[in-house]
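Chain A, query sequence.
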Amino acid sequence: MSYQRSNWLYSAIFRKYGPTGLRCYSQKTPRAKAQSKIAQIDAQNQFSPALIDSFHRRHDYLRISLTERCNLRCFYCMPSEGVELSPADHILTDDEIIRLANLFVRSGVTKIRLTGGEPTVRKGLDGIIRRLNELRPLGLQSIGMTTNGIALHRRLPLYIENGLTHLNLSLDTLDPFKFEIMTRRPGHDAVLRSLSAALYSQDLRSVKLNVVIIKGLNDSEVLDFVKLTTDQNISVRFIEFMPFTGNKWDKAKMVPSSQLLDIISREYPSITRAPDELNDTARSWKIPGHAGSLGFISSMSDHFCSSCNRLRLTADGQIKVCLFDAKEVSLRDEMRRGASDRELLNVIGRAVQGKQEKHAGMEDIDVITNRPMILIGGIQPRESGVRSLPRLPAQSFLLNNTPLLPHIHRRWSSSSSQSGLRLTHIGSDGRPCMVDVGSKDATKRSATASGRIYIPRSAYDLVTGSGDVDSTDEMIQKARSKGDVMTVAQLAAIMGCKRTSDLIPLCHPIQISNVSVALTPERDVRPVSQPGDEGALEYSIKCTATVTCEGKTGVEMEALTAVSVGLLTVWDMLKAVAGKEMKIGEIIVAHKAGGKSVDFTRDP
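Chain A, predicted structure.
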């Protein structure tokens, strides 16, 4: 072994395990003892005082946020009204990230973790990992990444080849339906593919699964997650729900780690405490016979501030010394002003010296001026986010003291002139929101909807095959070329039903048990009387859809969507012969059963 390589090895051992670990390693030969002494001196000089706070904590772990963007919208991470992203030129460039990483590693950092936002949405991520890997001779020992796994499984081999050593995947539920509720996006299967790819990789040193537990939503899945450790060498880490700006944190929704351990202990009495990694945030446990392990990150109920060795670099170049501290210092601005590495290190040192002994208690954490979790890697949230619906200024509504657009006032109202009535999809702040069904019980639910499309006699005869239809007529041939009207409309209705949550923004995705759609030609039926309906059509097609599920919310919207899509399909199929004369109407929920609200059946 060359002197340079052996000296680097001893330096790394000293920084990781201190003098005792180095002595144990170097007791083999006189040469080793000499080299260890030199390495000890070098290592002591190498760990910069700038990374040691006033409570003597050595910060050798740097978390770098690469982007504020994310391809999920987890409610505990991103406020429901969205966040305003930094301008592109405020985000650190690749070169700026590498310069700061180089400085931190030369000052004593041995572990770097890439975060976001979602780090995999950053362009050139593979190049950043490769350039970080080139810092190993300076003392960097590991490159980790925390990701939601949505866009990972195909790229993972390249990231590992370029130097990625540790992977943390975030997955809060094993239920695809619940996944879409918690993340406001589909993609559960993509995360599972990424997890599988990571577990079968031979070159990753560790794979961990991060699970944020929220009472009444996914706490019933704890034992299901534990079972993942039976045959897989994976560390499942249960994380307490933490307060951040905009995530509507509620102490009642936080499940203490001790409570989770009690649940697991009742099922697995032999579970034992396992050795923790140095400065690890998780308390580790092991079930005998299981290939993997469990961890509990109890930031709220039992903090680990005394051993904290972490610093955070946000995507826009701010250094945060504590996740729950709103104070930040901009390294980006210093770099762009032309600061030298020595000057940057002085700025870092002042920030580290300002680190408190411990963060505030769970009820006192600053969720007003601190960032949302998605922007621990972004700018401070402003009053309105780019993803929220726009608020027009008050003067836009008035013309000579008269409301110009009164319907917009109603759009933002969360109250009603009728006492006690409230729009469930409008939050207390007047903004649209999805109803929280996490605390509801899953029950059997059903709904039936119906509607009609009124058609002229020629279209009726074409659909039913009755009467004299001129098969040589060009329009008749065009209509017939599209296929059987009733069959196509029935299929379209079923497909539309299953895509309701994609079409209606605030509908929950539901696992439907059954969809039944019937289209029935009718004659001598007149539409409900409306002004101008004199001489109304007497022929119609009635569409009836019944939807059932075992779920936490009703299926009325699914039934209505099925009927609407079915009738629209009939219109499309027949427009060549009756486009100007057809009329769709009378779409209603005819029957509803299940759930807490009253069951009903409307009179025909």
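The longest helix spans residues 3-25. The two ends are 90 Å apart (CA to CA).
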